[in-house]
Structure formats: structure tokens, C-alpha cells
Amino acid sequence: MNFDLTEDQREIQRTAREWLASRYPIARVREIALDGGSDATWDEIDELGWPEIADFGMVELAVVAEQLGFSLAPTPLASHWAARLLHPELEGRGTVAMWDGEDGAKLAVPAADVADTIIVQRGDQVFAVPAAEASIEPANALDPTRPLFTVRASGGEEITGDHLARAWHAIYVAAAAESVGVAARVTAMSVEYAKERKQFGRPIGSYQAVSHACAQMFLETEGARNVVLWAAWALDNDPDAAFMAANAAKAYASDAAVNVCRSSMQVHGGIGFTWEHDLHLFFKRAEANARAFGDSTWHREQVAATYL
Amino acid sequence: MDLTLSPAEEEFRDTLRAWIADNHPGKEPEGDEASFAFRRDWQQKLNERGWAGLTWPEEYGGAGATQIEQAILFEEFARSRAPQMANVLGLTMGGPTVIAHGTDEQKARFLSPILSADEMWCQGFSEPESGSDLASLKTRAVLDGDAYVVTGQKVWTTFAHHSKWCMLLARTNAEAPKHRGLTYFLMDMEQPGVEIRPLVQITGEAEFNELFIEEARIPVENVVGGVDNGWRVAITTLMHERAGLAFALQARVQVALGELADELRGTTDPLIRQRFAQVAIEAQVLRLLAFRGLTSTMKGGEPGPEGSLGKWLWADINQALTTLAMDARGPAAQLVDDTWTYRFLRARANSIEGGTTEILKNIVAERVLGLPRA
């Protein structure tokens, strides 16, 4: 019994934190975001072995995913993971299209501009459609660090197998882990600001209205990380609990990131509402990611169904 | 990350599970007196099996078990909806304090009757003027020959009316800074200087008491951990017991959650389903915080912030859970039932007792996040 990362997992965490910080400093994230595309530079990510990290284990994947959220990295890595989990024989890069729009279009598909294959959900079925055969239009994404596209893709080869249910739940956990990273980064930003910013001659963090808001952020971030790591571990080790855990992780972590960012905007006051401050980038990632792969209301209903 | 049990731990779990199945006392009656007697019987049964003081050293009547085995015990209690033990303050605070700080004579005298539930323990910390600011307490103890003479007033003394011994914090040095003039005593409740007045709560019951202490005598051999060292004795024990407490609290939540699920099963009301799921998820978060706390304690470091987070989250969860149960009853919730009315009312104290949620948030803000003191 050891509810903590192993030394190897900590090493992965350190590498991810440092590499992503140097590759995607926030100024670079802004440049890519304003450019409106996905950053499809894979060389070093391939060398790090991250596209296949699910093969090592879901905890390892969750550790890297948290750092993707922490850094707001505009890499299409998470979209590729989702495609590869559903379609293990995937060749090249992939993404997943699931939300129905009008006239058979799929809404809010990330990284479609740099994917070779689009995994399309239709009802309970999933199909692999070559991106070259699909129509892909840029959409106006709330989160500029993760460009979205409207995709029209018909036909394709159906993907079948016993792996699919687990794959969807693994995707929920990966998305939840990204939200944990956002929550952790924004909690740290808020605490730092509350120590520095003075009003009425005192740091605002000395006022309980502010310090208790920061404590709440910490509680939800810690709680979210714990439930995500549990779900990730359960997917590889405890199949009876894994699906409920994954739904719980996505619901709780989505809400945690959203709550932390909304509260952080209050702690930051006026400066946090400006375009030049970085907070809105995290805020928008939290809001968008909370709605990707099922919102917290949908995931809570899945949890309710296991009890009631 | 590894939440699996070792073969020895699995064997312990299976033994425990089988034993509980054979000895389970059934559903606990509601209300203070009935549930107290019920929990006392249950503790005695466990003690006969050697499991009341599971993690206590064998020389003091415990089983010398690991913290993981303690966690397994709470998990199995939750799974089987078994009651908690009656002498909870003696088992989780008084006994460990005596084991950590007591003399050999104190260990020989006090530990065994805690386990057998022959002598119940209560805690005399809070005072009418000293709630969150506990260290400002005014009850004073003055040395007179071979005994201290104690005068003062304590409040919110849980189970005082059942108790033989009181863990009493009193001021022995009025000149020292407030944290350094306190001493930790074991006070015999059965003496003329101690008057217990029931404090009737919003539930209509008197689980708590007021304690009026007028020249009560405590022999010097009942000082624990040294004169004027009481704050450190009280706090260190509290910190080291928090991993265990977090498990006990989360186990109680899991029991109540299972009972509520039984009542709500099949409901199609989406609001009720959403709220139930939220409580169930947060109960898992609480459970995982307890696991995390266990891991950091086992690694030998200082107990992490999990204790403060756990107590705070538990209060939120138990209030949400009991409120949901009331709301699910609909208009019938205007009437007192035999389960949820009491629990709902009782849960209002959860965010006050044992450290208010505001104090816990201060602890997290100041000691974990490093924010300046209010």
C-alpha cells in the first residue's frame, strides 16, 4: 500500500515539468494560440516516448497529462492519446470527433488540422476515417490554446473490440488529469499573488476572505489529484472500481479546475480580467476541458447509476 | 502508486471480514444513550478478540498491528456497516497520549481499562471563553502538597457523563506565554469538585456537557508529559492520530452513504441523483486523502496537511449527505423520523467541533500555503 508516486513516476513528472516549461513558456503558448493552429512538432515528444506512454501505465499517462495542463502546452498529444486508446492499431496521428452538430457535422474536434486519422463516434459505434477524406473547418474555440475544428466525415472502418469501454474511461482520466494541472498552476499563481499584492497596507492573503478562498483551491486541487491517480491506477489494477473511479475523476477534476479559476479571478481582482494577464488562458482551458469528453453533470449521473 | 494489499494484509482482511460476519451486532439504535450502550458492547467484543487497540503495542493489550491494518479495519467496518467503538476518545487520543508521553505507572494503570471500555474517557479542552483560541484557556491548577487543585469550567465535554477520566488541559503557569503555561492532566471525574451538567443540544439530547470544576484534586502522578508541557503533549498526539481519525471518519461516511443509497435506489429525480453522486465522489476524495495521509505517516515524515483537509472535507460531506437525505424525504421532512432528523441536526456541529472549518482553513492557508497570518 503506497498512495504516492514511485521514484520512476516522479522522474517522469520532473522531466515533463521541465521539458514542457522550456518548450512552452507562456509567451510561446500565446504566440501559438494567436496563430490559431496546433503545434504539431513531434520529434522530441516521440523521443520522450510520450505518444505510447499508456503502454507503461495509466498513472504514468496521468502524470504527463497533469503537466500538459500545468503548462497549457498547445501540443496535440492528448488528442492523439484519445485516438490511440480507442484505436490501438492507429498509424500516424489521430484525434477523436464525438459531439454532433447540424447536418452530420462533428463539433469541437481538437487537432483535426494535424491528424492523419479521425476517430468518429456515431451512437455506440466508433469509426476510423482518414483525415484526407474528411472536411475540416476551423472553429472559433473558447480556449485559444487548443484550436477546435468542425469535421464532416462519413464512412470509415468500424473499430470493434473489448477494449472500447476501458478506452473511453482512460480518456476521461487523461482529460481529468489535465484539469488537475490547470488547477494546480492557478492555485500556485493565486497564492503567490495573494502574498505580493498589498491593499490597506497588508498583503491581501492576510485577509481570511482571500486566504480561505486559496485554502479551498488547495483542497479541491489535492482532492482532484488524488481521485485522478486512484482512477488511473484502478484502470490498470482494479477493474471493478475503475469505471466509476474514472467518471468520478472527470466530474470532480473538471469542477475543481473551473472553481479554482473562477475563484482565482476574484483573488486577482482587475488585473486577472485583462488580456495581458495569463489567468484567462488557464480559465478558458479549465472551462473548455470541463466540457470535453462529457461534462461533470453527465459523469456524475454515471456515478449515480452505479449506486442507485 | 500501489493500493494493493500484501498477502499478510489480505489474510488479516479475510479473517476480520469473517469475524465481523459472525459477530455483527446489527443496526445501531439512534440516540445517545441507546447507541452508547450498543457501542460499548461492540467494543468489548472486539477487545476480547484483541482488536480494540489494534495498533497499540502488544505489551499494553493491543495487537501491535500496522497503520495499514488499522485502515483495513475501518474499511471493513464501513463495508459491513459495523458500529464504531464506544470509548473513541480514550482509544484515539487518551491511550496514544499515555503510550507516547506517560510513565510506566500510568501505562500500567490506565491503558487496559480503556480497551475494555470499563473506564470511559472524555476531553476537557474547550472553555466558554476559549473555543478556537484554545491556548487562552483559564482553568488553573495550583500545586498543593502531592496534588494539584484545579478550578475552572469546561464546555462541549463529549461523553463526560459516561466518563471516569478526563484529559484536562489547565494553566499551571500564568506568567509564561499562553502556549507554554499549560499542563496535561488525567482527572478523576468521580470526585466532589467535579460537577457535570448536561448541555442539551439542538437534537434535544445531551451528548455534550458542561464541566464545573471547583477545587478538584489531581495527584501529581497524573501529570502527563511534564508540567507546563501540556500544549505540546496535546498537539503532537492529535497530529499523529489524524491519519487514523481520517479513516474512522471516512468509514462512517461510507456507512451512511450506503444506507442513503438503499433508500434512494431507483429514484429518477435528476437533482437527487446529481447530489447523491457528488456526495459519493467527495466521500471517495475523503477516503483517498486518508490513504495519502497514511502513506506520508508511514514514510516517517511529519503528518501532512491531510489531517486538516480531511476533517474539513468530512464536515462538508456529512452536512451535504444528511441535508440530501432530508430533502429526499420531501414534505415528510417536516416530521421527526428515527434516522435522518437526528443525523441532520447533529451534523450541524461537524464544522464546529474538533476545530472549526474556519480554523482548519487558517491552518491550511498559513502552514501549507505560507500565506501571512490573519
Briefly summarize what is shown.
The complex is a heterodimer of chains A (308) and B (374). Chain A is α+β, with helices and mostly antiparallel strands. Chain A has ten helices and ten strands.
Structure commentary:
Chain A has three domains: 7-81, no CATH class; 91-159, Beta Barrel (Butyryl-CoA Dehydrogenase, subunit A, domain 2), CATH 2.40.110; 163-307, Butyryl-CoA Dehydrogenase, subunit A, domain 3 (Up-down Bundle), CATH 1.20.140. Chain A is 57% helix and 13% strand. Chain A has ten helices and ten strands. Chain A has helices at 7-23, 26-35, 43-48, 58-71, 77-86, 163-196, 208-237, 239-268, 279-291, 296-307, and strands at residues 94-97, 99-100, 106-110, 117-122, 125-130, 135-138, 148-152, 157-159, 198-199, 202-203. A four-stranded mixed β-sheet of chain A has the order 1-4-5-8, with helices on one face. In chain A, helix 5 (77-86) packs antiparallel against helix 6 (163-196) and helix 8 (239-268) runs antiparallel to helix 9 (279-291). The longest helix of chain A has 34 residues, at 163-196. Chain A is globular and about 65 Å long. Chain A starts with 6 loop residues before the first helix and ends with a helix. The mean pLDDT of chain A is 96. The longest helix of chain B has 35 residues, at 230-264. Chain B has a four-stranded mixed β-sheet with strand order 1-4-5-8. A four-stranded antiparallel β-sheet of chain B has the order 2-3-7-6, with no helix packed on it. In chain B, strand 2 and strand 3 (147-155) form a beta hairpin. Chain B has 374 residues and is an alpha+beta fold. At the A-B interface, helix 6, strand 10, helix 7, helix 8 and helix 10 of A face helix 6, helix 7, helix 8 and helix 10 of B. Chain B: Its cofactor is FAD. Chain B: GO terms for molecular function: flavin adenine dinucleotide binding; oxidoreductase activity, acting on the CH-CH group of donors.
